[in-house]
Amino acid sequence: MRVTINDIAKAANVSPSTVSRALADSPRISKATKRKIFKIMEEMNYYPNVIARSLARKSTNIIGVLVMGTTEKAFQHPFFPEILRGVASVAYKNEYKILISSVTDMDEQRKIVNDLTQSGITEGLLILSSGVNDPTIPYLKEIQFPFVIVGRPDNENEVNWVDNDNVSIGYQMTRHLIEVGCTDIAFLGVDKKFMVTLDRLKGYKMALKENNIPLNEDLIVEGKFVDDTGYDLMKKLLDRGIVPSGVIACDDLLAFGAIKCLNEKGLRVPEDVAVAGFNNVPLSSYFTPPLTSVDINAFSLGAKGFELLLNSIKSEVKSFNRAIIPFQLIVRESTMKKGS
Amino acid sequence: MRVTINDIAKAANVSPSTVSRALADSPRISKATKRKIFKIMEEMNYYPNVIARSLARKSTNIIGVLVMGTTEKAFQHPFFPEILRGVASVAYKNEYKILISSVTDMDEQRKIVNDLTQSGITEGLLILSSGVNDPTIPYLKEIQFPFVIVGRPDNENEVNWVDNDNVSIGYQMTRHLIEVGCTDIAFLGVDKKFMVTLDRLKGYKMALKENNIPLNEDLIVEGKFVDDTGYDLMKKLLDRGIVPSGVIACDDLLAFGAIKCLNEKGLRVPEDVAVAGFNNVPLSSYFTPPLTSVDINAFSLGAKGFELLLNSIKSEVKSFNRAIIPFQLIVRESTMKKGS
DNA sequence: CTGAAAGCGCTTACAG
DNA sequence: CTGAAAGCGCTTACAG
After folding, report:
1. Between the CA of B5 and the C1' of C15, what is the distance in angstroms?
2. Tens digits of per-residue pLDDT, A139-164?
């Protein structure tokens, strides 16, 4: 039924070995033979079977992408597809394929990781999640399976990872708000389970210190990182009688909610309160007011992540690599106070 | 190095065939033998190699998901990941894996489709894109490769597909706007390349006709389906001196832009102009004003899409199946005119 | 209930 | 420059 290397061999009057070598463009096969073989392949509409090839070569050219916590809204965040695009782009160039698995709970995660690492289908894993204390990480290290984390993990010197410098991101944004005249700056959406929010908070504190602004813990509001609770977080603050002059939300989606809440209380953005987000979602520039944010270059995060993974797969000498992707502060109306 | 079925066979003093059968839980193997074999597998930490299994069984349990037009913003739309979640959910239950490919241009698409269909890795294809006149479709039909399209294709009776009833969606939304007192209703974002927008427009026209409202072509504005041009489309209309009492945008993201434009011109939503979108993105409920939209149940689109594909792969007798996923009209403030 | 053997479609030392 | 043979790690008729 399906034409195999043996069919081609017969038709070309050569051995299967020779066909295989022609396919691999081995220098040991004469040009003439190659030409003949390729012509026949064309005629007979031959395509190599990658499964058979994988078995023989003991290499599948497939990596797995693991998306954690898909029951939460995280997976719906615009930067996830963007990361995936980056991964796909470099993977394609390197003739790698991408197996994607989304995981809801820890139990499922254990099963899927086990499957992906033991069944021989996948050569390495790209993990999209910077959850603190993920038990998968020590497991992967133990079995020495190549993997890269997108997002800074807690044990940053013992794994491969790629991320932005989120401390710097938090710092820059806070400094920006200080520069436009804010002193009491709220920080919304810290989630202890996500390094990224902790890092951004760290940068926030650094900037305050550097500018001799006393830290007010009341201005820091915990919450889910990516969720529709920006409104609630802001409300919590206002209900306590606190009206900050600036607000930094850990994600644009949170910032949108916060702005809505401020508006309802009759507070104008940016005149009364300057508001900024992070991650620069597509809508941010079209929001009212256009939202100051940080472009994290999600595409590059994915692209670089794949590169690191490929390195880890191919490299003889094991090492732990990291990559820091640059970001851009994007100032828009939502933080443009008069006089600044 | 890696433990194989032969290692287990030796350790258990049986033949590889028996181990294989135990693995498949064949009734032809005694309970006692199975127990012994499983115990040894446990001890030796054995996992079957799915590549070898795939080759022997001639079946990989892998499907491909093809995402078209990833250079456009489409891929970043929140409903794509949601569809993927639906696919993954059912695939997981059926022990299928998902290979994902995103495609930018037609040239790349041809290569990837060719690869996915000929290399033997993938048993069927799920195509995310309802682009009109996609050359891939006739090709897949010709080679009789199982596939399902998410989105109604032009040749709807000759392929498997799953979609909402977009005519009905357009109709219901328009009727809703008419009910709240709108008569001159603009329709933004028709893109002839996407069936979904054409269908929604069709429903719009049906509703007008049914209510004896004359069709005004000037109110229909073409544009990219999913893009940040809602502002521009609305502006185009207003610049022509047209101020509709209602606006339907082909996507929530477009509606956000349209609202912004209206606001800048001093028009209030919904008091002066009622505005509605489609697809119910996460932000819609938190927008100011909360946006009337339609929940298309993207998760179900993906889940059902996989079911159809699995059917197509397994079924002896070939047929063309379709599935229509229900939707929900979600009325929010943006269309709540006074008195309605 | 179990085994020996052939086969899935390739690749690759080994030999010439 | 080319081929015969073994092997990748499974499954599955065939035979008993």
Report:
1. 31
2. 999 999 999 999 998 888 999 999 99
